[in-house]
Structures are given as structure tokens and as C-alpha cells.
Write a structure and sequence with these properties.
Chains: A alpha+beta (about 525), B mainly alpha (about 300), C mainly alpha (about 325)
Number of helices of chain C: 12
CATH architecture of chain B: Orthogonal Bundle
Order of helices and strands of chain B: HHHHHHHHHHHHH
Helix content of chain C: over 70%
Order of helices and strands of chain C: HHHHHHHEEHHHHH
Shape of chain C: globular
Radius of gyration of chain C: 24 Å
Radius of gyration of chain B: 22 Å
Largest sheet of chain B: none
Strand order of the largest sheet of chain C: 1-2
Number of domains of chain B: 1
Number of strands of chain B: 0
CATH class of chain B: Mainly Alpha
CATH topology of the domain at 96-268 in chain C: MetI-like fold
Helix content of chain B: over 70%
Largest interface: A-C, 69 and 57 residues
CATH architecture of the domain at 96-268 in chain C: Orthogonal Bundle
Strand content of chain C: under 5%
CATH topology of chain B: MetI-like fold
Number of strands of chain C: 2
CATH class of the domain at 96-268 in chain C: Mainly Alpha
Number of helices of chain B: 13
Structural class of chain C: mainly alpha
Structural class of chain B: mainly alpha
Oligomer: heterotrimer
CATH superfamily of chain B: MetI-like
Distance between the termini of chain C: 19 Å
């Protein structure tokens, strides 16, 4: 393989030569494809990250998802139910019109109501009323105290009331309406092939270094790496874990990596007395062992997180003990990843009434998270070794999530034991707590992704209290407390690891790794 | 080797030579060194697939025997239990040598199973068309033509999208994608046979339909069928690999060769060539040897190409 | 002949209808597209809104009826993912696929015929044996594996050719093509070659077989006896006779090129309709899958009909009528 490596290096050297000639232009290979240039069409990471090039939100998120001023310069509650937002003055849209409160109001009206939108922004705007006070002041009112106002507002792009608000999704795709205030102007969108943008020299914030950027979707990991090595692109995102070591050794490539807000975890059936994919060693029906918190703890103990991180993720992950990595708002200081102890796990399961162990099937997606199918297989290996004979079924996400959420009769979750991931879009702990841990409550919007149906009234109370607490310090303490009870005491879910995301660029370029996994061309700088 | 003995009847009916037809056939077949080599290789491959559980040191599907701690080891490394991985391990820690043998078993059985079922279906349909003629034939052949105008890969892809993954589903999809080739071949040569005098004679003798079709017409259609069977089996194996690569084929825990290659694809750039290289070679050898044997059979059985 | 064509068209309409029924109802058993799109923390009402919007709350037969009504007026539904009409999305990407297929066809002819001729004229030379061995490999190697290898060797190890995307395009008659720019040409070569490989092998074998049969025929012997030069015999007489079957077969194989472009486009990230189909399958974008199939069925039926009609025009011995034995 030595010859291959030499060949690889020469390829890169050649590529580097050619791409330096065009230093003003940047080409980025993205692992995902945008589905529309309409920033209100589809609430999805690939779309949001592209929208962040052309459009601004009132409030931005920096690379650690801390809130920073965007089109708003100041914001805060003026009473329990009202937030005041002061807008930035002197900003112009790419179409030449001036930004003011009317643009904001019409954007918030359009965002939840885009026709044919498969997943809109209604979630972030529901229950809020916006009122224009003057051209650069807006009041947002909620029926109850609502601390996450600023987080919610950071997700919705602001479009121009002159060219954008009355436009259709097609108009945004063609470029006729694609006028934001962001650092890049729209040039061309060829679905499936490329998005071309040019620098907005009138941008109010820090102007991008490059004059022109081309975003190319290259879904396959090896193809993305090949394109980088061949010099077709200057930078790629989500570097496959398997290629990272080789790329790190390559002196022509620069890597930036950082932990993400995504935790990979296991959900266990905690609502059926007899679970469909659990049986005795001889295939007989047994009472659902996953109802027992001790058994869940034992399963957690049986998993060698370090081995998964080392062997499956090739170091591109951090063993997890809770819902978000250290440093995020509302995480617990005391929770640690469960220590690997297969002997003790075996004993606990025997004591819980299963001296022979039992049979289990683990379900997981095979095209959603980094190395998802392999993690599932590794978990199955580890459980099989403590006597919980586990077999594996993985499927594409197109069938997986529907079945996992409501595949069984009565729209109940179908599986017994599943692997899922959760990225906290808001960058704080209430997001996973309300969706994964809180008792499933269809009408109140709680527990939407609680596929194990864990339910604990005490924890529910704490979460709901936190969601009403505007004081940051108190809210953080409540969220941490809920997490400690849910994970430390109840073993509501079993956290495995946090993903670490990596970007690779040709030498001379650097990218500030982002916890939200976004790849933004304005974040690329050349070091020479 | 069964292919050769099944061949006996055609030569027997058309035989004018002094030496036995089988011997003549065999002699002609083995005239080509390449084809001989391919046949030997094919026999070895089939035996290896048949006896995979005995030949492989590990059962790659038993999760208790596979450890993630052994994953991605290059060829020649030792496992935790001290066993040497001859061809290295894959991303889940499976011994590749064992996984290839077992994968070969799956690939071959998918190819052969779908081939046999498609052959039976196609044969029945083709014979029916040729024997009855008339409207039956018109309708059947219209369907066959229609089916043949759609590329097999597309038909199988769509079917698997609807059916989902799984070994039965992929066999079904391959049968649907392939039966028409057999039907067309059988009908074509049966039509030729049907017009021959011996069939007329048999009809005059008052023999039953079944007897005429199965004892007289069918054996005489075997020569072109054998060629189609070999070509289509190779095709089925390649098709299964392609479908698995596209993500609609077999489930991941019991990988066929195609899936092993596909799984190894992600390791190509990192220098871990063995994960997809060795299964690729195994797939290549299998398909090439079947095709070479099929090619030689075609040459030997087709009188038009006789030198 | 007119009666024949009308009958064929009616049969085709039945096929298209049956196909749409199978695919439409089949797809509705698979998966749940809503969970593909709705953000995971969306409250139930949001999810139900999406379900209503896609019309998924209605019974399947009603959905099918709506689809059928739309289809008759040229509307094959709107993509769940892109929010645009499925037909528009497909036609948008069709030129890329057609271009790839045509370039592959071109490569098959340009490489396949000379190699096949050589192998046919000098069947026992070692070069011919190599050519034939190569053609067996071309037949045997799965397209996806070759594609991977091509990227490995030409894009990564040698760095000669780009591995993904379409490159620069120019617009001719409102259609974007990439084979007229140097950058575009360098992008199209690897995927087109990958796609062509099977067809190159096919053309080599057809040409070789045709040559070997033809050289023993009287007109060639006669031409030889007349003292014509070998190059003239081959160029004029032989080639003319071989070309007819080769061209016919390639015409029929064009459909399979479009089908296999699904694989090639996936590997080379070629922005054609095959890649669109695979992605639609992955995301369960039903309208696109259905529309793609409807379209491809129609395209194939047209190709076959045209080939049949051309056949009867070119060869008066072929009569266009239904077989009634």
C-alpha cells in the first residue's frame, strides 16, 4: 500500500498547484444535498446551512451555537410574556431594498405557511405573536413565560418583503426571489450538481475571504475524499471516520474537528409488559426485562464505549454519559459514561430474574448517523457476550423512522431496542429532554421522539418548570437535575457517544469546526 | 459437470459420428485451455461455497464469535484469541476469509436459485407458447417482449424498492427480471423442433401432449438453454452485487460478496484495500469463470461457429 | 401498418396504466415518508399538517384517483422533497443522463468496432486473444466495481481526471451540454467509459462474429478475387454489412444504458435522473419514483416502436402485424 500512498500524495501535490491559481474561488464538497433554495421550505440541516450563506436570521449562532447578534442587535424580555427585539439599521438586501421590521413580520408570516413544505418552521413560531413597534423594534408575545425565544428566532431566515414574501419556492430555486442580507449572493442553483454564490461586498458583518464559492453535493464518503485528493474541491465536510487517520498524515491536507451536539443512544421499550422483539433463550414469551431499570443499567454496563469509539468510530467520538457533551447549556456536571463491567452486568441480569439471559433484537438505521449499522452490530456483539443473545436488523431511514415511531398497532413504536441519535438544534439540554425523556404527550408536543415511552411524573414536572423559567442560571440547574434523574437514576435511555465532526481542506485553508455540523463558506479562511 | 451429462440427448439425436457424443463434446470443450481452466476454477469455487462452514475458521454470522476489537485488521494479523486472519478482517471484525466463503455461498445460491426458478418459469411459458401457438403465443410473447425491453437492473431495483431487503425478495426480483430470457430461448428452439418431422410423427402416433413436450421437444431445446443458464447465472450474481451496492439488496448482517465489496468501498481511500479487494477478486473469478465456461459451451454447441 | 401502430399504442397505454397501479399501490405499502421529512422534535399537529398536505390522510385508492386525474393532464405529482413538479425535476435532469448515454454509445462504437474487426480478421493472433479476454472481463465486471476502480486509478492515484460532477456546461438550443467544454469533457469521460464498458464488449463480440461470418461469404471472396485491397474490402464491403446488426442492437441497448446510468450516476455524482431516482428511493419521495417509472416506460415503448417501424421500412421482408400462427 506504500505505492498507493505515494500516488495519493502526488495527486494532491498536483491538485494543490492547480487550485492555488484560483485562490479567489472556493469549492466545497458537501455530504448532503439541499432540497430547495427557499429558506422556509424545509427545516433540515443541509437546507439551513445553505440558507445561512444567503440569508441572515435575527439572531445568529456562532460555532459553539452561542447566540450572537444577527439582524437583531439586542433582545431580551421586558416582562414575563414579552420580548423586545431591536433590529440592525442600515442593512440592505441583495435586491437593494432596505431591511426593517416589515421584512421580519412578513418572514415570520410566510415561514410556517409555505405550500408543499415537508417540514416547516411552524414549530419555532407557534404560539408567538409579533408586533411592529417602530421600523427597528419588534415585540414578541407568548401566552406563558418562554425562555427559548432567542433560540427559536435564530432558526428562521429573514427574507425581503419586496421580492421574497410573495414568492413561491420555485422563485427561490430560480434565483428570482433569492435575495437575503447574508454574506453571499445567489448566482446559480443546478439541482443535484452545484450552488454558486458570490461575495456580498455590502455585507454588514465580517466579509467572506473568497470572491466566489461553489457548493457541490457529493454524497458518498469515499467519493468526497477522492474529490478532495484529486483537487476537484478545496474542502469537504463529514470526513469519513475511516479516512481521517490517512488524511491527518497527509501534509497537504488540513483537518479541523470538533464535538457535535449529537448524541447516539439506545431507546428501550418501557411500556409493553411483553415486548415484541424480546424472548427467552428458547424463544418463549417472557415478561419484558427492559421495564426493569437494573436491567437497563446492566445493558449500559455491558457496552464497551471505548471499544466503539476506538474500533468503530476510529476515535471520532467521545463516550457519552448524558444527552449533550460538557460545555453545553443545562448539562450535568456529575454524570459520567457508564463504566464497562460485563461480569457485573451478567450478575445484575441474573439477579433481576434472568439467570439464563434472554434474546433481544436491536434495530437501527443504516444510512443516518456516522457508522450507524456498525455501531448496532458492535452493541449486539457486546450484549451477546453477557448472555443477552442479540441479533441485528438495520434498514434505511426511509422505513426505519416511521416504524420506530409508530409502526405498531395504535401508532405505537414497533421495536423493542433501537439505536437513534439526537442533535440539539437549540444547543441546550431542553431540546433532548422534552423530546426524548418527557412522557409522550401528543397534544402538548412533549416526548415526540420518546420511542421507548419512558415516563416519570417527577422528571416531567422538572422539565416543564425549566421550560417556564426565564432565569438562565435556574433553568440550567433544573435541566441538569432532570438529566441526572433520567439517565443516572432511571436509565431512561443509554447514551453511547457524541459524534465528533471533521472537515478536511487543502493546505492553507482552515475551518472553524461547528457543533451544529454546519459547513459555512464564510467560516473558511486561508492561513497564508 | 451435470451440465455436460444433461447434454447427452441432443448429441444422441443428431449424432452421426462414430465416437460417443459425450466424448466428442467433452473433447471439443477441453480443446480450449482457458475454458478447461475456467471449469476447474468454477468447480473449486462451487465446492468452496458448498463446504464453507467446514473450511472457514469462524462463523462470520455468529455475533458471539466476532469481536469489534478485531475490526479492520490487515491480512496476517492475529486475533485476540490468537488466530491469524489470512485475509484480514472487515469493519465489524469478521474474518474476511470466512466471510468471503460464506458470502460466496450466498451469492452463488442467490444466482443459482433465481436461475433455476426463472428457468422453470421461462421454460413452462416458452413451451406453452411454442406448443399451443395462436392467441396464447401472441399474448405470452407480447409480455415477454415487453419484459425484455426493460433492463433487468431497473426491474429488479423497482421490485426491491417495493418488497424491501431480504434474500427471498432478491431471488424473486431476479426471477422476475430474468424469466423472459429463458422463455424466449425455449420458445425459439421449441418452434424449430415442433416443425420437425419427428414431432409430427409423434403426434400421428397419438402420443399425449405432455409426452411430446417433455420427452421430445424439451430435450432438444437444452443446448441453447444451457448457454443461457450459464450467462444468466453470472448475470444474476453481478446483478445481486449491484443491487446490494445500491442499498436495496441483502441485509447487512449476512453479507453476500456484493455487499462485502460495497461495505469495503468506504475503506478504499484509507488504504484498507483488503476489505473490498479480496471479495472483489472472489466475485470477479466467479463471474469470469462462469462466463468463460458459458462461452466455450456456446462455441461447442453452436454448429454455425464450428471451424 | 397504421392499424398495427394504433394497436401497439393501445397495448402500451394498458401497460403504462398497469405499471402505474402496481408501482403506486406497491409504494404505498413501503415506509412512511412523513417521518423522513418532519423534523424529529416536531409536535404531532405539525406532522399531521404534513400528512394532510401530501394527501396521505386519504385512502390509497383515492390518492391514486387523484394521481390519475393529474396524470391525464400532464401532472405527475409534486415531489415531497423538492416541492416542485416531479415531471419538471426529471426533465431538468434528463439532458445530463441522455448526454452520458450518448457519449457512452459513441465510445462503444468508436472503441468496439475497430477492436472487433481486428479480432475477427486475425482470430488467432495474440492481440485478438487479448481483446477477446478483455471483452469477457468487460462483460463480467460489475459496473459499480469498475466505477470505483476507475476513480481510484484515474482520479486519485494518477490525478488525471476529476471524479465527480458534471463540470462546465454550455447551453445549446436551451439544453445544457458538457461535452463541448474541455472541463466538461474531462468530467464526462470516466462515467461515460464506465457506462460504455459493457456495450464496448458487446460491440466487439458482435463485430467479431459478423466479420468471421462475412469473410467466408461469396461477395468478400469475390472482392478478393477481383484484387481489391484488404483495407478497401474491410472498409467498404465488410463494414457495411456488419454495421446493420451492430447499430440495431445498440439502438435497442440504449434503454439499458439509461437504466445502468442509475449505477454510474450514483458513483460519479453525475447530476442525472438516475441519481435522482436512487435518492428518491432512499428518501421515499414517491411522486418522483412513480413519475420516473411512467416516463421510462413511455420512453422504452417509444424506442421499441420506432425500432420496429424503422425495421419494416429498411427491410421489406419484415411485416408489421401481430403474429397469428
Amino acid at each position: 500500500m506504500k505505492s498507493l500512498k505515494i500516488a495519493l500524495t502526488t495527486g494532491v501535490a498536483l491538485a494543490a498547484l492547480t487550485s492555488f491559481a484560483a485562490a479567489q474561488e472556493l469549492t466545497i464538497g458537501l455530504s448532503s444535498e439541499v432540497t430547495s433554495m427557499d429558506p422556509h421550505f424545509h427545516n433540515l440541516t443541509p437546507n439551513n446551512q445553505v440558507a445561512d450563506h444567503v440569508f441572515d436570521s435575527l439572531i445568529g449562532q456562532d460555532e459553539k451555537q452561542r447566540l450572537v447578534p444577527g439582524l437583531a442587535v439586542e433582545w431580551g424580555p421586558i416582562d414575563d410574556l414579552t420580548w423586545e427585539i431591536k433590529l440592525r439599521e442600515g442593512v440592505t438586501f441583495h435586491d437593494g431594498s432596505t431591511f426593517n421590521a416589515d421584512d421580519v413580520i412578513c418572514s415570520f408570516e410566510r415561514a410556517p405557511n409555505v405550500p408543499n413544505s415537508p417540514s416547516g418552521y411552524g414549530t419555532y413560531l407557534a404560539g408567538k405573536t409579533f408586533e411592529k413597534i417602530d421600523d427597528f423594534t419588534i415585540h414578541a408575545k407568548t401566552p406563558e413565560p418562554y425562555p427559548l425565544m432567542a433560540n427559536d428566532l435564530s432558526t428562521v431566515s429573514i427574507i425581503s418583503d419586496e421580492t421574497g414574501c410573495g414568492a413561491t419556492t420555485e422563485d427561490f430555486n430560480s434565483g428570482a426571489a433569492t435575495h437575503g442580507t447574508g454574506p453571499w449572493k445567489f448566482v446559480e442553483y443546478v439541482p443535484g450538481d452545484r450552488i454558486v454564490l458570490e461575495r456580498n461586498d455590502g455585507y454588514f458583518g465580517e466579509k467572506p475571504e473568497f470572491a466566489k464559492v461553489t457548493l457541490k453535493p457529493i454524497k458518498s464518503g469515499p467519493a468526497r475524499v477522492a474529490a478532495l485528493l484529486a483537487g476537484d474541491v478545496d474542502m469537504i465536510n463529514s470526513v469519513p471516520t475511516t479516512d481521517l487517520a490517512t488524511l491527518k498524515e497527509n501534509s497537504d491536507i488540513e483537518i479541523s474537528e470538533g464535538v457535535s451536539n449529537r448524541v447516539i443512544y439506545l431507546h428501550m421499550d418501557q411500556f409493553r409488559d411483553a415486548s415484541p422483539f424480546v424472548s427467552g433463550k428458547d424463544g418463549s414469551d417472557i415478561p419484558n426485562p427492559l421495564m426493569n431499570a437494573d436491567v437497563r443499567k446492566a445493558i449500559s454496563m455491558a457496552i464497551n464505549r471505548d471499544a466503539i469509539v476506538e474500533r468503530v468510530m476510529e476515535g471520532q467520538a467521545i463516550p457519552a454519559g448524558q444527552l449533550l457533551p460538557d460545555g453545553f447549556f443545562g448539562v450535568s456536571d456529575s454524570l459520567q459514561p457508564e463504566a464497562f463491567d460485563p461480569e457485573k452486568a451478567k450478575d445484575i441480569i441474573a439477579e433481576a430474574g434472568f439467570p439464563e439471559g434472554f434474546k433481544l433484537r436491536i434495530h437501527g438505521p443504516n444510512d443516518r448517523y456516522i457508522n450507524d449499522a456498525k455501531i448496532v452490530e458492535a452493541v449486539a456483539q457486546m450484549l451477546t457476550r453477557i448472555g443477552v443473545e442479540t441479533d441485528v436488523e438495520t434498514m434505511p431511514r426511509s422505513t426505519y423512522f416511521g416504524r420506530a415511531s409508530r409502526g405498531a398497532e395504535g401508532d405505537l413504536p414497533e421495536f423493542s431496542f433501537i439505536l437513534v441519535g439526537w442533535g440539539a438544534g437549540s444547543g441546550e439540554a431542553s431540546s433532548p429532554l422534552r423530546s426524548l425523556i418527557h412522557t409522550f404527550d401528543k397534544d402538548a408536543g412533549f416526548g415526540a421522539s420518546n420511542r421507548g415511552r419512558h415516563s416519570d411524573a417527577e422528571i416531567d414536572g422538572i422539565i416543564e418548570e425549566a421550560l417556564r423559567t426565564v432565569d438562565d442560571e435556574k433553568r440550567a440547574a433544573l435541566l441538569a437535575q432532570a438529566t441526572e434523574l433520567a439517565i443516572g437514576r432511571n436509565q431512561a435511555i443509554i447514551p453511547l457517544h457524541y459524534q465528533v465532526n471533521a472537515w478536511a481542506a487543502r493546505k492553507g485553508l482552515t475551518y472553524k469546526a461547528r457543533t451544529d455540523e454546519y459547513t459555512l463558506a464564510q467560516g473558511v479562511t486561508s492561513s497564508n | 459437470m451435470t451440465a455436460i451429462s444433461e447434454n447427452h440427448p441432443i448429441e444422441a439425436t443428431g449424432g452421426e459420428r462414430v465416437d460417443t457424443p459425450f466424448r466428442r463434446f467433452a473433447a471439443e470443450f477441453f480443446e480450449s485451455k482457458v475454458a478447461t481452466g475456467a471449469l476447474i476454477l468454477l468447480v473449486v469455487i462451487v465446492l468452496a461455497a458448498l463446504f464453507a462452514p467446514l473450511l472457514s475458521p469462524q462463523n462470520p454470522y455468529d455475533l458471539a464469535q466476532v469481536s469489534i476489537l478485531d475490526s479492520r485488521l490487515p491480512p496476517g494479523e492475529k486475533s485476540m484469541d490468537g488466530y491469524t486472519f489470512l485475509l484480514g478482517t472487515d469493519g465489524a471484525g469478521r474474518d474476511l476469509y470466512s466471510a468471503i466463503l460464506h458470502g460466496l455461498r450466498i451469492s452463488l445460491s442467490v444466482g443459482v436459485m433465481s436461475g433455476i426458478i426463472a428457468l422453470l418459469v421461462g421454460m413452462a411459458v416458452g413451451l406453452a407458447a411454442a406448443y399451443w401457438g395462436g392467441r396464447v403465443e401472441t399474448v405470452i410473447m407480447r409480455i415477454v417482449d415487453l419484459q425484455l425491453s426493460f433492463p433487468a437492473v431497473l426491474v429488479a431495483l423497482i421490485l426491491l424498492t417495493l418488497l424491501g431487503k431480504g434474500i427471498e425478495n432478491i431471488i424473486l426480483a431476479l426471477v422476475v427480471a430474468q424469466w423472459a430470457y429463458y422463455a424466449r430461448t425455449v420458445r425459439g428452439s421449441a418452434l424449430v423442433e415442433r416443425r420437425k418431422e419427428y414431432v409430427e410423427a409423434a403426434t400421428c402416433l397419438g402420443l399425449s401432449h405432455n409426452r411430446i413436450v417433455f420427452r421430445h421437444i424439451l430435450p432438444n431445446c437444452l443446448a441453447p438453454l444451457i448457454v443461457v443458464v450459464t450467462v444468466q447465472t453470472a448475470h444474476a450474481i453481478a446483478l445481486e452485487a449491484t443491487l446490494s451496492f445500491l442499498g436495496v439488496g441483502l441485509p447487512q448482517t449476512e453479507p453476500s460478496l456484493g455487499l462485502l465489496i460495497s461495505n469495503g468501498f468506504e475503506y478504499m481511500m484509507s488504504g484498507r484495500y483488503w476489505i473490498s479487494f479480496f471479495p472483489g477478486i472472489a466475485l470477479l473469478l466467479t463471474i469470469v469463470s462462469i462466463n468463460l465456461v458459458g462461452d466455450q459451451l456456446r462455441d461447442v454447441l453452436n454448429p454455425r461457429l464450428k471451424r | 401498418m397504421t392499424v398495427y401502430i394504433i394497436r401497439r399504442l393501445m397495448q402500451s397505454a394498458v401497460v403504462v396504466f398497469l405499471m402505474s397501479v402496481i408501482v403506486f399501490f406497491g409504494l404505498h405499502v413501503v415506509g412512511d415518508p412523513v417521518y423522513m421529512f418532519a423534523s424529529p422534535d416536531a409536535p404531532q399537529e405539525e406532522i399531521e399538517k404534513v400528512i394532510r398536505q401530501f394527501g396521505l390522510d386519504r385512502p390509497v385508492y383515492e390518492q391514486y384517483w387523484l394521481f390519475l386525474k393529474g396524470a391525464l393532464s400532464g401532472d405527475l405529482g409534486r415531489s415531497y422533497v423538492f416541492g416542485e413538479p416531479a415531471l419538471k425535476l426529471i426533465t431538468q435532469r434528463m439532458p445530463a443522463t441522455l448526454e452520458l448515454a450518448f457519449v457512452a454509445l459513441f465510445l462503444a462504437v468508436v472503441l468496439g468496432i475497430p477492436l472487433g474487426l481486428y479480432a475477427g480478421l486475425k482470430p488467432h493472433s495474440s492481440v485478438s486473444r487479448t481483446i477477446m479476454a478483455g471483452s469477457i472481463l468487460g462483460f463480467s465486471l460489475p459496473t459499480f466495481w469498475v466505477g470505483i476502480m476507475l476513480i481510484m486509478v484515474f482520479a486519485v492515484m494518477l490525478g488525471w481526471l476529476p471524479s465527480t460532477g458534471r463540470g462546465d456546461t454550455v447551453t445549446i438550443l436551451g439544453i445544457e451540454v458538457s461535452f463541448l467544454t474541455l472541463d466538461g469533457l474531462s468530467h464526462i469521460f470516466l462515467p461515460a467509459f464506465n457506462l460504455a464498458l459493457l456495450k464496448i464488449s458487446l460491440v466487439i463480440r458482435l463485430t467479431r462474429a459478423g466479420t468471421r461470418e462475412a469473410i467466408h461469404q461469396d461477395y468478400i471472396k469475390f472482392a478478393r478475387a477481383k484484387g481489391l485491397s484488404t483495407s478497401r474490402i474491410v472498409g467498404l464491403h465488410l463494414l457495411k454489412n456488419i454495421l446493420i446488426p451492430v447499430v440495431t442492437v445498440l439502438g435497442l441497448e440504449f434503454g439499458s444504458l439509461i437504466a445502468f446510468s442509475v449505477v454510474t450516476e450514483t458513483i460519479f455524482a453525475w447530476p442525472g435522473m438516475g441519481k435522482l431516482l436512487i435518492e428518491a428511493i432512499q428518501t421515499l419521495d414517491r411522486p418522483i419514483i412513480v413519475a420516473y417509472l411512467m416516463m421510462i416506460v413511455v420512453v422504452f415503448i417509444v424506442i421499441n416502436l420506432v425500432v420496429d417501424i424503422l425495421y419494416s421500412v429498411l427491410d421489406p421482408r419484415v411485416r408489421l402485424r401481430d403474429q397469428t400462427v
